[in-house]
Amino acid sequence: MTIDLLFHRDRSCLVVIDVQQYFLAKLPLDQRAPLVARIAWLMRVAGALQIPIIATAEDMAQDGPLVPELAALLPEGQSVFDKMVFGLADQADIRAAVAACGRSEFVLVGLETDVCIAHSALGLAAARHRVAVLEDGCGSPPPHHAAGLDRLRNAGVTVTTIKGMHYEWVRDLATLAKLKAAIGTELPAGLTL
Fold it and tell me: Isochorismatase-like domain spans which residues (predicted)?
């Protein structure tokens, strides 16, 4: 029996976690805008490939909304979940959205790597989903980003990059050409394909 370790666009859901100004402000200044730009680009990729997106913002009344650049990329009428826990699998309405999307693979980006990303990834993995965290699609103030990634790797969560996941979702040159036609060829600063 062959084991397929790649992620698939028809099985994947992109989860955008807590990209709020409150958390971005904790990152070094030079990391903030590039991180948001990379996540926005990946959201456009997901949209073009018909990959569902679930978005959360932690305690919006206190910490503010999802940043406008990302909120604008959600499908029309889709709301952002007001996450009142660190791990999204621990909140009933988000857990219901995970089940309702009908996907078995979850790709996580956002903030913060060692807390909400880690708790969410571990909770989804405990629920027997395949989970990937994109190293250049999430952040935490140093040294916590690296520590969070180490924890996830040690727990068996796939840690990869935006570039890597892009190509796992695309898979072939015909799909790549259609994607480029849909979203263009401009890349965020620092991202190469």
Answer: 12-162
CATH topology (fold) of 12-183: Rossmann fold (3.40.50)
Q: Maximum distance among all alpha carbons in the chain?
A: 50
**Amino acid, res. 156:** G
Predicted TM-score (pTM) of the model is 0.97
**Bridge partner list, 111:** 139
Helices (H), 12-63: 21-24, 29-48, 60-63
108: left (phi over 0), alpha (psi -120 to 50) or beta: beta
Residues forming a β-bridge with 110: 17, 138
Residue type, 126: A
Whole-Å CA distances, 121 to 37, 132, 158, 160, 192 = 22, 8, 10, 13, 26
pLDDT digits (tens, 9 = 90+) for 104-159: 999 999 999 999 999 999 999 999 999 999 999 999 999 999 999 999 999 999 99
